[in-house]
Design a protein that fits this description.
single chain; 2 domains; transmembrane helix; 0% strand; 170 residues; mainly alpha; DoxX; DoxX family protein
Length: 170
């Protein structure tokens, strides 16, 4: 593993482990911020899941679930276990979290607006880091590349087999 990955992944993960732990312990207070976002997301998620799956409507539950996901995925990213999946999960939790907490466009006080914007931009930068981590194949070919080359190799093998069969028949 490259030294940059060995250092960068745990550094990136630290924010999410700490933030997730904070979310779990302070869920009731944070749920007030999450409520407007959850009111919009819950119906969409309810429609996207089978009827047998119950989507919780309580913002406190959602804050705790998101916090637990951030802790688990953050630890996984930090130790290098399933780093691409972990980064993708963290990115998925970052979007609603940022939309709930840092709505700078609603702030009326100039200082509060600047602080909210600063945190919003910080989270956008973290999202960029997570995107890089989620797409990082560590120098190995990605799934799309492997699938395309497997198809190409299979066609080439089939053509060679066909040529051998024709040669034996002739």
């Amino acid at each position: 593993m490259a030294l940059s990955r060995l250092i960068a992944r745990p550094l990136l993960a630290t924010y999410f482990v700490a933030n997730g732990a904070n979310d779990i312990t302070h869920a009731p207070q944070l749920a007030q911020q999450a409520a407007p976002v959850m009111e919009k997301l819950a119906p969409m998620m309810d429609n996207a899941t089978p009827d047998a799956v119950t989507i919780p409507k309580d913002p406190v539950t959602w804050v705790r679930v998101a916090g637990a996901l951030q802790v688990a995925a953050g630890l996984s990213l930090a130790v290098g276990r399933m780093p691409r999946l972990s980064a993708a999960v963290l990115g998925a939790t970052l979007i609603p979290s940022t939309a709930a907490r840092y709505r700078f466009w609603e702030a009326t006080d100039k200082e509060q607006r600047a602080e909210q914007l600063n945190h919003f931009v910080k989270n956008a930068a973290l999202g960029g880091g997570l995107l890089i981590a989620a797409l990082d194949t560590a120098g190995k070919p990605g799934l799309a590349w492997r699938a395309a080359h497997a198809t190409h190799d299979a066609k080439r093998e089939a053509a060679l087999m066909g040529a051998k069969v024709k040669a034996k028949v002739a």
